[in-house]
TrEMBL record, chain A:
Domain Glutaredoxin span(s) in chain numbering: 13-75
Entry-linked SUPFAM superfamilies: Thioredoxin-like
InterPro entries hit by this protein: GlrX-like_pln_2, Glutaredoxin, Thioredoxin-like_sf
Assigned protein family: Belongs to the glutaredoxin family. CC-type subfamily.
Annotated localization: Cytoplasm
Stored Gene3D superfamilies: Glutaredoxin
Protein name, entry field: Glutaredoxin domain-containing protein
Entry keyword Hydrolase: no
Domain of life of the source: Eukaryota
PANTHER family (UniProt xref): GLUTAREDOXIN
GO cellular component: cytoplasm
Organism the protein comes from: Capsella rubella
This protein's UniProt keywords: Cytoplasm, Redox-active center
Keyword Lyase: no
From TrEMBL, chain B:
GO molecular function, one term: DNA-binding transcription factor activity
Stated family: Belongs to the bZIP family.
Superkingdom of the source species: Eukaryota
Biased composition range(s): Basic and acidic residues: 48-79
Origin species: Capsella rubella
Residue intervals of the BZIP domain: 78-120
CDD domains hit by this protein: bZIP_HBP1b-like
Name of the protein in question: DOG1 domain-containing protein
GO biological process: DNA-templated transcription
InterPro entries on file: bZIP, bZIP_sf, TGA_domain
Length: 99, 319
């Protein structure tokens, strides 16, 4: 859990994904389109993959990946990110982290 | 002798035995005479007996015409008579057997038909969709999975009817003048209706992802515009925008923003789809089919689609 919290604060926008997960990829692409370069953690490459997954689920995600943290706070999974984007609330959130 | 042979034969398979039987009959008639061929003495009694037999067995219809023949020419061509009679007997037997076989065939076909109809009904309830059948069987899905698909199709049919009704209602309302509140409630209902559709698609996607993705339940025209199980909401926006005038500047701005964000989201999802297809193809090539992994992803994609279209509808609401 601590590791997750630490990792999620490493950068403005942090995405936990898996190399096999295509929705994570979609989320990454979306952020790139917005002009943000998020920090991507591929947890399946991490030896502590299981713990990270459990921690993410405990934080409230129904599925562990993709998990998006903006400014150290959990935004959610694909659903939440897309909904926010469509309601135009995502862009102001990532504005401080634009490259 | 001859009569007994005629008795035996009906119980056996005729087609093969008949020629043998005929030969057998002739042989017996020869034997009876001890090798001497005296047709006259034999024919008459046997004829009478065979006549009665043929009458019994062929319901009299075939027996009577022969009597005339045989009485007229008994004295002159007894062997021809007997031959003709024998042939007639055989023909009668043949036709009886053919009739029997045909009737049996009909019976079995009828039973088969009833059985098939029952199966079809049962399968309909259980959800065996013929068009989807090849796919399902190819992938080895059980019947339980297809039942949801048929259920979905039926539900979709109802949904479309309800949708048409709502559209008509909206049309009539727009021609007249309705209060904003009523309009709003109508729009709310329409949106709820759409959410219902999304829920249906979601459940169906959980059951058979390919079915939903290929949009098999839609008309062929709709399928032309297919994108991840539905159409692109951004396209819908493009279509709707001209109809939305007069829009206030703010509304216009909102719509444009929505269009842009919609397109971005769609692009991201499309790329995700590409990656998914790519990885799937790779897994298939490598010989493993990670089915379990992508199905939940597809349901997520479906939910995504829901959210996308819901925001399109929110634009409608704002307008």
């Amino acid at each position: 859990m601590d590791k997750v919290m630490r990792m999620s604060s490493e950068k403005g926008v942090v995405i936990f994904s898996k190399s096999s997960c295509c929705l994570s990829y979609a989320v990454q692409v979306l952020f790139q389109d917005l002009g943000v370069s998020p920090k991507i953690h591929e947890i399946d490459k991490d030896p502590e993959c299981r713990e990270i997954e459990k921690a993410l689920m405990r934080l409230g995600c129904s599925k562990p990946v993709p998990a998006v943290f903006i400014g150290g706070k959990l935004v959610g999974s694909t659903n939440e990110v897309m909904s926010m984007h469509l309601s135009s609330s995502l862009v102001p959130l990532v504005k401080p982290y634009l490259c | 002798m001859n009569t007994t042979s005629t008795h035996f034969v009906p119980q056996r398979r005729f087609e093969t035995y008949e020629p043998l039987n005929q030969i057998g009959m002739w042989e017996e008639s020869f034997k009876n005479n001890g090798g001497l061929y005296t047709p006259g003495s034999i024919i008459i009694p046997t004829n009478e007996k065979t006549d009665s037999l043929s009458e019994d067995t062929s319901h009299g219809a075939e027996g009577t015409p022969h009597k005339f023949d045989q009485e007229a020419s008994t004295s002159r061509h007894p062997d021809k008579i007997q031959r003709r009679l024998a042939q007639n007997r055989e023909a009668a037997r043949k036709s009886r057997l053919r009739k029997k076989a045909y009737v049996q065939q009909l019976e079995t076909s009828r039973l088969k038909l009833i059985h098939l109809e029952q199966e079809l009904d049962r399968a309909r309830q259980q959800g065996f969709y013929v068009g989807n059948g090849v796919e399902s069987s190819a992938l080895g899905f059980s019947d339980n999975m297809s039942s949801g698909i048929v259920a979905f199709e039926m539900e979709y049919g109802h949904w479309v009817e309800e949708q048409n009704r709502q559209i008509c209602e909206l049309r009539t309302v727009l021609h007249g003048h309705v209060s904003d509140i009523e309009l709003r409630s109508l729009v709310e209902n329409a949106m709820k209706h759409y959410f219902q559709l999304f829920r249906m698609k979601s459940t169906a996607a959980k059951i058979d992802v390919f079915y939903v993705m290929s949009g098999m339940w839609k008309t062929s025209a709709e399928r032309f515009f297919l994108w991840i199980g539905g159409f692109r909401p951004s396209e819908l926006l493009k279509v709707l925008l001209p109809h939305f005038d007069p829009l206030t500047d703010q509304q216009l701005l909102d719509v444009c923003n929505l269009k842009q964000s919609c397109q971005q989201a769609e692009d991201a999802l499309s790329q995700g789809m590409e990656k998914l297809q790519h990885t799937l193809a790779e897994s298939v090539a490598a010989g493993r089919l990670g089915e379990g992994s992508y199905t939940p992803q597809m349901t997520c994609a479906m939910e995504r689609l829901e959210a996308l279209v819901s925001f399109v509808n929110q634009v409608r609401k704002k307008a």
